[in-house]
Amino acid sequence: MTTPDARLAELEAGLADVRGRIASACAEAGRDPADVTLIAVTKTWPASDVAALASLGVSDVAENKDQEARAKHAELTDLDVRWHFVGQLQRNKAKSVVRYADVVHSVDRPELASALASASAKYREGTLDVLLQVDLEEGASEGRGGVAPSGVAALADEVSAHEALRLSGLMAVAPLGGNPDRAFARLAEFSADLVATHPGATWISAGMSGDLESAVRHGATHVRVGSALLGKRVSRHGSVRP
Ligand SMILES: *Cc1c(COP(=O)(O)O)cnc(C)c1O
Fold it and tell me: What domains are there in the chain, each with its CATH number?
């Protein structure tokens, strides 16, 4: 059993390590670390970890399952952090997600955008920040989600037609086992194309524990880091969870 103090020390060490990696990658790329937001991916970890990370200065946290995210947020309503939703999302969950999420990274089809827009108009005060998840594997592997690169422009137009949504940029996950530099270089090109027609959509959400340096090299504005910060996720069956 880890005591709260020991856990805080672990998280502090993880955070120092990850911030150090981001700073080095920025130095190599000639970028300002202030231009890269660290999002702590807290899925599978308890609300107490989210609170501990916030006490250490983490301003952004992400979850990938509605039920888990909703429960954690309910425990931490007063915590001053931005909540990001990064998982695949069914339309019928939109009503729930817009009540706690500030940003949804995983919009990949018009029906989901419509559902988020009507739910936001009904249940939220301000607009909801939305990123389009781009499929960099182009269907090669099952079910990470994402719109094909050829569909980004049309989906961007759909999203920006909704007043309750603000199109903020693109998100992607590098293909498993592929070359992240190649993947994130492509994402940077898609981002440049998008910004040419939607000047406000400048965010690039890319990079996780294993490939954040590559993402920073290719212009990521937001990195989503879980295991390097919080430790390996272990399921009840003892296997490491994706
Ligand atoms: C889990 C997850 C992450 C974080 O992955 P780590 O390898 O633990 O850093 C980032 N993005 C998404 C979409 C995730 O589901």
Answer: 4-230 (3.20.20.10)
